[in-house]
């Protein structure tokens, strides 16, 4: 019997999308608030405030490998309601947090929920649509993933222009509560379940590995590379992750089924996704500091400048998803990475007097490129997997992208702080005003250097995209129906 996918329940998918959109909105809004949080909470080092962003990726790296287990064992609506409850509580704690430590704890709660929701929604999409329709469906997922960065600058910037950064978390709390309440009354199970068990030894190694690796990268600014706090932790993390990976091929019920990498197009899509994550996440952190700290724009203005690009990216996602269903991923990826490369090069030539339209057009060029790459490439890889590996494939994709993004942020911040430290002039040889001008130029040069490195990274992705082949859709026996109770 050929695989027949029932008509998707758009209402249930819509509820899940709404909740997931709020979690994405929270993450991107935080980037706009970071400079103000540093001042309000008297945080001296950017490596410290960076953890409010990095902790999201760190927690995701630890928890996302477990999502295949949860999605297989528990009903989808129960998982969704638990995750949204956790996220709402975390958002409320962030609103009332009096210091950095409690704010970081609140971010951990939010990150844990986000780590579960992202692969859950992706699995619901994979189960609800046939492979021939997945390009369009994944494009819709991509739209909400990118709609948050499009909306958050305007929302967060407007709030902080009239209140402070806490107002952002209050709004997020209210927005999260709405789909949560609806889900208690309307949501039902969508995915099938089967008995499985947690592989706790693998969980220990993956947790140690991801935690040590990210802690090590986050310590570079303070301790340098040649220290236990940096090099030692990175080595421990790498070794733990190597043991974790080897173990996944030897145990009967792996925590993260790495057999998905036996499928060539999935493996290639995953490799390109690593490079792609470096290109996406780092500028999202760097641009607010260029616009606010160097150019002196308000938080609202620094949020509005990237907005045309992110709106373009969000609404192009369903279009490029449908386009993938017709022409495949390779030509789209090649054109896309060429555009990303041009956009990165343009941003590597910023000055103190660069016009706003120049920055906007450069970011829009990157956005068009990413729209042609992200979901078509991911869909092409997932389409090669049999249905039994859907949950594992979604979990692997999310894990790889989150960890690569965290590593990318840490590395780009290391490049920025290293460049500044190497070129910052001696304050004793300058007047106060002259030193301030020289310092701003040194910071600008560091940001340009980061985007120049991004050019090289995008060229690596471009070269890999020539090896992409369109996956031929093969039908499978119909999967077991989900239990609705």
Lay out the secondary structure.
Blueprint: H1 10-40, H2 46-49, H3 51-73, H4 76-96, H5 100-128, H6 134-162, H7 166-186, H8 200-218, H9 220-223, H10 228-248, H11 264-294, H12 299-304, H13 307-327, H14 330-347, H15 356-383, H16 390-423, H17 432-465
Helix pairs in contact: 1-5, 1-6, 1-7, 1-11, 3-5, 3-8, 3-16, 4-5, 4-7, 5-6, 5-16, 6-13, 6-15, 8-10, 8-16, 11-15, 11-16, 11-17, 13-15, 14-15, 14-17, 16-17
Keyword list:
485 residues, mainly alpha, Growth Hormone, Chain: A, 2 domains, 17 helices, 77% helix, globular, disordered C terminus
Reported for the largest beta sheet, the result is: none
SSE ordering: HHHHHHHHHHHHHHHHH
Question: Which class of the largest domain in CATH terms?
Answer: Mainly Alpha
Specify the structural class.
Answer: mainly alpha
Number of strands: 0
Mean pLDDT: 81
CATH-defined topology of the largest domain: Growth Hormone, Chain: A
How would you characterize the overall build of this protein?
The two termini are 27 Å apart. This protein folds into two domains: 400 residues, MFS general substrate transporter like domains (Growth Hormone, Chain: A), CATH 1.20.1250; 56 residues. The longest helix is centred in the last third of the chain and has 34 residues. It is globular and about 70 Å long. It is built from 17 helices and no strands. The protein is 77% helix and 0% strand. α1 runs antiparallel to α5 and α6 packs antiparallel against α13. With 485 residues, the protein is mainly α.
